[in-house]
Automatic annotation (TrEMBL):
PANTHER family: ENOYL-COA HYDRATASE (PTHR42964), POLYKETIDE BIOSYNTHESIS ENOYL-COA HYDRATASE PKSH-RELATED (PTHR42964:SF1). GO terms for molecular function: isomerase activity. Belongs to the enoyl-CoA hydratase/isomerase family. Coiled coil: none annotated. SUPFAM superfamilies: ClpP/crotonase. Gene3D superfamilies: 2-enoyl-CoA Hydratase, Chain A, domain 1, Lyase 2-enoyl-coa Hydratase, Chain A, domain 2. The keyword Isomerase applies. It comes from the Bacteria. InterPro entries: ClpP/crotonase-like_dom_sf, Enoyl-CoA_hydra/iso, Enoyl-CoA_hydra_C, Enoyl-CoA_Hydratase/Isomerase. It comes from Aquirhabdus parva. This is Enoyl-CoA hydratase/isomerase family protein. Keywords: Isomerase. GO terms for biological process: isoprenoid catabolic process.
Length: 269
């Protein structure tokens, strides 16, 4: 895969793993329109990539993402006043929904590294990660209602991640909370007290991604996304066929042979 040129992202490919850093540290990696556009372009390309198997998403400068860029909102307000229409607001907000759904549906294993500010849109990105690693000093929150706006595109993914009861409490009160609470409610999977421990965990997770069969991982993620969206009998029928294809396919044969021969399979780097 050829990596795109970006201004707000730092991209570094290490074999089958792509490290993506949100790179607006002076703004605590707030999401500008340009950053949203660049992330959409990147994850659109990743949807068709079979060489990238994992994406590690992190913020530059000690913050993950502090939400939407206030300066962009001011520019949108001027544009809306000039046009006499809210179309610019609608397009910007819906664009973020497109982005977060692309990340959610990405065939790769998406690892979110959460530290510093994890607010608004950053909170939404955390909710669509497959693996969420968190520094205990991170600060989470859905501050939208306190600003007179709403977590429009984020809300469905928050509910999917932590359930309706917790989502109602956090979204309606706009509470800020730390890594321990994020872990307690199931938003993050692992909690760390130091950056060194966090970095070590990233290396471990990346190693685990490399040991999983590429196609089997992609198919497994697609199955999980279908749960609750198709009738159960239909899903079970479909996955039985997929299981047979996996067992008789090249990955299944190589995985079985590697197990018998007590060696790593060929896809493990």
């Amino acid at each position: 895969m050829t990596l795109p040129e970006t201004q707000t992202l730092i991209l570094e490919q290490q074999g089958a793993i792509l490290h993506v850093r949100l790179n607006r540290p002076d703004a605590r990696n707030a999401m500008s329109q340009l950053m949203v556009t660049e992330l959409i372009e990147l994850f659109t390309a990743l949807a068709h990539s079979e060489t990238i198997r994992g994406v590690v998403l992190r913020g530059e400068g000690g913050n993950f993402c502090s939400g939407g860029d206030i300066k962009d909102m001011s520019n949108l307000r001027l544009l809306a006043n000039q046009e006499g229409s809210n179309a610019a607001y609608v397009a910007f907000n819906r664009g973020f929904g497109t982005l977060i759904n692309l990340v959610n549906q990405a065939p790769q294993v998406v690892v979110a590294v959460l530290e510093g500010a994890v607010l608004g849109g950053g909170f939404g990105l955390a909710c669509v990660s497959d693996v969420a690693l968190c520094l205990d000093s991170a600060k989470f929150g859905l501050p939208e209602t306190g600003l007179g706006v709403i977590p429009a595109q984020i809300a469905p993914f928050v509910v999917q991640r932590i359930g309706l009861t917790q989502a109602r409490r956090l979204a309606l009160l706009g509470n800020r909370f730390g890594g321990a609470e994020a872990y307690r409610i199931g938003l993050v999977h692992e909690l760390f007290s130091s950056v060194d421990a966090l970095n070590a965990a990233i290396d471990e997770v990346v190693g685990q991604i490399r040991r999983t069969a590429p196609k089997a991982s992609r198919v497994t993620k697609s199955i999980l996304h279908r749960v609750g969206h198709v009738p159960l009998d239909t899903l079970l029928d479909d996955v039985a066929v997929q299981f047979a294809e996996a067992v008789s396919g090249s990955e299944g044969l190589e995985g079985t042979m590697a197990f018998v021969q007590k060696r790593l399979p060929t896809w493990a780097e």
